[in-house]
Amino acid sequence: MEDISDVKIVPCEKSRFIKPLRMLFKQNGREKIWDAMEVHDSVVILIFNKTRNVFVFVKQFRPAVYLSRSKITEENGSRHIKASENPPNLGVTYELCAGIVDKDIGNQRIAQEEVMEECGYEVPLENIEPVTSYRSGVGATGALQNLYYAEVTDKMRVGTGGGVAEEGELIDVVEIPLCDGKSFITDQNYSKPVAMMYALMWFFDVKAKHYTNSNKL
Amino acid sequence: MEDISDVKIVPCEKSRFIKPLRMLFKQNGREKIWDAMEVHDSVVILIFNKTRNVFVFVKQFRPAVYLSRSKITEENGSRHIKASENPPNLGVTYELCAGIVDKDIGNQRIAQEEVMEECGYEVPLENIEPVTSYRSGVGATGALQNLYYAEVTDKMRVGTGGGVAEEGELIDVVEIPLCDGKSFITDQNYSKPVAMMYALMWFFDVKAKHYTNSNKL
């Protein structure tokens, strides 16, 4: 995953993924302009394997995070990032299993599919428990993210996960023991989005007491 | 704030705010392309007024959220949103006081300035307590967001806040009582980003016990 090389930054004229639009409106009679992007709503799933009391997360190289943490070199009018000076693990993040809402089959079923694709667990739909929803962005994007909780067992693990190879996904499944979950939340050695931190706080508030070694927390 | 009208969606050719770029790289020898945007790192501040045991938040109309929750009407080749059918409060969010890191004065000082500009509290720098950091995005953006905690008193309130009028900011300061904080986190009547939900979970985990009526929680 972390074998990254030949990193170039080039102009992005027509993107399939980033489609800016401009919203013109009046607020309290005053004309305003706001540039935004249309993005899909999404689902994220906090997975807990109760056979071995571990959280199941995904780990991947995120170009936008690498970009944000790297020094961009400008040479002869072109821009690039030297992997020798900016170690690729700068772009590696730990995240909840996740997916976008790009089909009309219900968010719970999308969550179920992502748990299978990314983490290899075949989970009954009734094990995909809705937790809450919130805005995944409020500035350039404003889509809804729906958080689910999935309790799984080793018996449900029927595949290796790792994402859809044809889509170029390269995802590692990682396990964090229950007893390390709380310190993981704020451990700055693991780059992560805040949704994962919220999900874990929710778990320790609501769910932890149901699992056998929760009294050690 | 919620007097919104004449909402049009137009193409966004050259944006000052959304600047896509394309990153070309090799991962495990395979060529990959990722479209991303460069965005500033940011600060967010959970403000607690201990004189009256209330959280101090900001409330604003967010065009991208409104867009995400509205039906876009296409007529004669132009796109618009009918405010009569899509009430503007769809775009109103509750958020932590926040700002972008666009100057080199230290994040704590930027946080201090935002607390003054948006909420009207003049807070000593030593009251701006670092909590943690995380990625504000992992897909199209990957910037760092730094969370702070600021304990304030009524005596520190020297202005009305509301943002910088010249920049078109129109922000309401809202107070949520400590005793309502926990139910506020998952109350779907208040549209909010997950960073605010994490910050409140952190408060109830770490800080609440220090305040007088925490035993009622």
UniProtKB/TrEMBL annotation, chains A, B:
Name the principal localization, coarsely classed. cytoplasm
Give the GO molecular function terms.
metal ion binding; UDP-sugar diphosphatase activity
Subcellular localization, as worded in the UniProt entry: Cytoplasm
Catalytic activity, per the record? UDP-sugar + H2O = UMP + alpha-D-aldose 1-phosphate
> Under which EC number(s) is this enzyme classified?
3.6.1.45
Task: Relate the protein's function as given in its record.
Answer: Hydrolyzes UDP-glucose to glucose 1-phosphate and UMP and ADP-ribose to ribose 5-phosphate and AMP. The physiological substrate is probably UDP-glucose. Poor activity on other substrates such as ADP-glucose, CDP-glucose, GDP-glucose and GDP-mannose.
**What name does this protein carry?**
Uridine diphosphate glucose pyrophosphatase NUDT14
Native organism: Mizuhopecten yessoensis (Japanese scallop)
